[in-house]
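Tokens for chain A. Residues wanted.
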């Protein structure tokens, strides 16, 4: 199994030199404190880093930092291309989306960077799951999105012929996005991708349909974020099975938990704790579900009261606010979906996924007592190691 890792999107590091500094001052010492031979990094490279790394000297500095600190960049986070720790991010995390050629061009650059920054035979890149639905129909055009994924897969197939190594692009289903649930992924893989993605891929591979089918199967997969599946109130094992059955490769897993309040209409203290997490930087899509399965959804946590008013019999309410895995679940007060996350991780491991990372990027906006990103990340990685070792010993049961 590849080294367990953490996502570097928690660092306010956009340029390549800033990333090198973050790896030197944070990732390397974290590995040493953990006592691990190697630490995985889900290496976030945005637009500024992609530009910087066109300079061979900058690329060499980054690769040397990775190697010198015994890190492994076998997976990249290519989701946010803009400044992800800006004062306000919100919807900008999804821009540009996959109807924009800027996204395709940046992701093709990430293909080459993935091969340069790791020697692993299989490298993954997580990305925007098409687009964000509130951007409108023009930005959520299934044929356009599928066609660009197909063109990317063709580029990856050509690199595989040249290098013998495989890079997999992994759209990451997320609340309110074009791909949000496992049902969306199954529909997209069996419909638009099989039609428009295949046609675009074949066109880029000189009309070779067999090569195009192989390229889509090999170079496109899914990044399962367990927090995101919890926000959809999906059964995580069934969701992973549904995506696999539709032909989607489960190539990457980001293990993260969401805050939750059980029986919110009976727990004013828990609701108040959840409401207090509302903040101006990140988008925190929020959803409630009744015992019967009815859903109420709002776009951000500051609309929590509206969400609960629409579902007076809600059994639970959850928000897209990544919290540390080690936070204990509870029946009252602010709880955690960590048990749901472990179920998703178990399903991903059983599906053959061995690119696994924690993705708590919200340290800077957590409660003041929980803002120590270094100690928190080390603790979270240790927690993850214990869970993975336990699941492997049990055979993923």
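Reply:
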């Amino acid at each position: 199994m590849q080294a367990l890792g953490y996502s570097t999107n928690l660092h306010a590091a956009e340029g390549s030199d800033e990333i090198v500094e973050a790896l030197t001052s944070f990732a390397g010492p974290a590995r040493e404190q953990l006592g691990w031979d190697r630490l995985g990094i889900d290496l976030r490279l945005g637009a500024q880093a992609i530009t910087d790394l066109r300079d061979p000297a900058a690329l060499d500095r980054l690769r040397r930092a990775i190697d010198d600190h015994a890190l492994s960049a076998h997976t990249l986070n290519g989701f946010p291309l803009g400044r992800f720790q800006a004062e306000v991010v919100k919807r900008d995390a999804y821009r540009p989306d996959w109807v924009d050629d800027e996204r395709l061009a940046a992701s093709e650059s990430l293909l080459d960077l993935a091969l340069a920054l790791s020697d692993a035979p299989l490298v993954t890149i997580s990305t925007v799951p098409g687009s964000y639905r509130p951007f409108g129909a023009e930005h959520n055009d299934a044929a356009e999105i599928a066609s660009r994924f197909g063109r990317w897969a063709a580029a990856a197939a050509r690199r595989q012929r040249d290098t013998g190594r495989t890079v997999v692009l992994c759209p990451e289903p997320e609340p309110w996005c074009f791909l949000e649930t496992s049902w969306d992924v199954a529909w997209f893989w069996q419909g638009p991708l099989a039609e428009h993605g295949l046609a675009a891929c074949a066109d880029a591979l000189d009309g070779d349909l067999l090569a195009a089918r192989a390229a889509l199967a090999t170079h496109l997969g899914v990044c399962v974020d367990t927090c995101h599946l919890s926000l959809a109130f999906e059964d995580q094992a069934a969701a992973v099975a549904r995506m696999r059955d539709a032909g989607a490769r489960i190539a990457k897993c980001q293990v993260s938990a969401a805050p939750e309040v059980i029986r919110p209409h009976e727990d004013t203290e828990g609701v108040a704790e959840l409401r207090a997490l509302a903040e101006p930087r990140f988008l925190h899509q929020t959803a409630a579900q009744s015992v019967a399965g009815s859903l109420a959804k709002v776009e951000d946590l500051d609309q929590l009261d509206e969400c609960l008013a629409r579902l007076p019999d809600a059994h639970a309410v959850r928000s897209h606010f990544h919290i540390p895995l080690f936070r204990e679940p509870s029946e009252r007060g602010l709880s955690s979906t960590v048990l749901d996350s472990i179920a998703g991780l178990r399903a991903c491991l059983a599906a053959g996924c061995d690119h696994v990372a924690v993705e708590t990027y919200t340290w800077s906006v957590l409660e003041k007592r929980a803002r120590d990103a270094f100690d928190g990340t080390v603790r979270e990685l240790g927690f993850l190691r214990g869970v993975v070792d336990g699941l492997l010993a049990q055979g993923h049961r």
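The first strand starts at residue 5 and ends at 7. The radius of gyration is 20 Å.
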